[in-house]
Structure prediction request, 594 residues.
Amino acid sequence: MSDLMLKGEAIKLGDDISTDDIIPGRFAHLRSNLPELAKHVLEDAAPEFASRARALSATGGGKAILVAGKNLGLGSSREHAPVVIKMSGVGAIIARSAARIFFRNAINQGLPVLLCDTDRIGDGDELKMNVTAGEIANLTSGIALSCGKMPPIMSAILKEGGLIPYIQKHKDFVITS
Amino acid sequence: MGKTLAEKILSLKSHGEAKAGDVVIGDVDLAFVQDTTGPLTIRQFKESGFEALAKPQRTIIFLDHAAPSPAQQLSNDHLFLRHFAGEAGCPIYDVGEGICHQLVAENFANPGDVIVGADSHTVTAGALGAFATGMGSSDVAVALALGKTWFRVPESFLIGLSGTFPRGVYAKDLILYLIGRIGADGASYKALEFAGEALAKLTVSQRLTIANMAVEAGAKVGLFPSDRITRDFLREHGRGDKYKPLSADSGANYERVIPVNLDQLEPMLSLPHAVDNVRPVTQTKGVKIQQAFIGACTNGRLEDLAVAAGILNGQKRHADTRLLIAPASRQVLIRAIGKGYIQSLIEAGAIILPPGCAACLGLHQGVLGDGEVCLSTANRNFKGRMGNPEAMVYLASPATAAASAIRGEITDPREFI
Ligand code: SF4
Prediction:
């Protein structure tokens, strides 16, 4: 199977972006209306995020890449968080570190998450990434970044586009090492 | 090489030898959803073409987050979940029964179980020796269908507890102190395992408070060994036969060992807007509060209401401070009425909210106004958590919340005890 490649532009956020930042509690009533909920993604924490991400994905040249600091996605287990990020046109996430449930949820939604030193990525940088190999080329600065590899079961899930398509195909978890 | 408690349970449930770092597939003994994550989970379950639940009697639906519902969309979510429960033949705990994690502790969690819930505070059941962890909807949907899930076996931190809580200091102060020390991501992907001589005096209620907030240090589980105290709790809740003693082996391998002497703790506070922004109450005294909230899966149990009632009995809340109290379950509420706590609390000016999450998540029953400050016994104080990004949330023990409600400002509970 060929490597999963992606190209896009960084939209940079800070440290400790919580799931309450991604979806503020006051919008909980919209959770069964995902398109409506997605309009409020990061509304308080990064008000310009949604429009920038949408504009980027509309140009067709590349996707928005959400770049965050440490402990991205801390807080609740709401899978709506990576869902609305993906719905806003984000193609991948890069963070210094990510909270456990959020990381797993994003992969389960087919949204790649790579972990590396994000201080070396600036807002608006052009990035090219090989998700499977865990490699990022920062085309703006010329710096190459390498990220650890995820457990094989996670890359297998990602390859199928998420957990549900993975299970539909395999009918069970298949562990390969 | 001995096993940690996490390795022990996951070895048992994966029918093999699970070592930290391994990826294993484990049987799931109990899976549950609540009303804000449940609809997506159930939609994913259905869209995947799954026909039936693997274990209908061990799949539970809780309506607790919007209880009763404040909005038509949420009422429709409730309808959807009730309908699914009927169709799939799984138990449902409807509005007013209480918070999922409290009901799991009262009715379901047993030592050695693997529990997955579509809620991050599923870790609460670690207090009873269950490997309990929160997951997203896709993972839970698959666990509902297959009765199993995959885990990366976590490395463990050993938290060694000695000493006794001084007057005015409680389990909440301990876990806030620990989170301040470890940091909000300091235990990411790890298991926190509690041990030490102090456990012999830690009630299940206190253990639940501590395990509940393990996730606030990033941990996957917060595990207590099972002992006589666990056994008595299970007996009291009609499942004494489910007790089995379970603890880590001596010689188990820990990534980090953190000793804590309870004698040296004092009342603690988590300041806005990060749970690991922790200081002693003595350094933050005097901040005016417009609301005190005693409840949530962290601190809405009978012992918590007893402490609050003890302080508030014969006192009055400050005229500028609303005092909201939400018992964690119907059983807690009934017992608190029987013990006279509710009477004392209402006489002190408290509003008793229905058993459920209440004001904790900013959806209803106590949303804050711009610039308002709330002292809450819940577990999160992120910006906007209580429904308004312009408000501030401090976290503390029920004793600190009760004392502060009387004075109308952050107050050291030892002044009242
Ligand atoms: S009480 Fe608060 S933290 Fe606990 S389950 Fe409910 S919303 Fe979540």
